[in-house]
Amino acid sequence: MPRYASPPTPLPDAATKAVEMLGANPIRGAIIRVLAQHPNGLTSGAIERELGVSYQTVFRHLQQLVSIGVVTTDGEEVHHGRRVIYTLDRQAVITTLSEYRDFLLAED
Prior knowledge:
Elements: H1 13-22, H2 26-36, H3 44-51, H4 55-67, E1 71-73, E2 86-88, H5 90-104
C-alpha cells in the first residue's frame, strides 16, 4: 500500500521509478507539475480542483514548497477573502534537482 495517494495524472515509467527510488511525494510532484503548466500561477483552490485532492492536502504541500523556495506567492496568506496566487520558481526547481543529483552521485 502506497504511503501517499496516487497523483491525479499517471506518471511516465521513468518518473514513477524516480518517485519510488526516492520515496518522493507524488501529490507534491503533481502540484509542481500543475504550477509548471500555469506560469501566471494559481490559487490553492484552483490547484485543489485541478488535482481533485483535499484543500488541506494542497495547502499543506504548498506551504512546504513555499518554505523551501520553489514556489512563491504574491503576498502573505490572509484569511479575509484575499486570494493568494502561487507560482512555480522554475529555476529554483532546476537548481534544487541538479544539486541533489550531484549529491547523490557524489559529484563535487
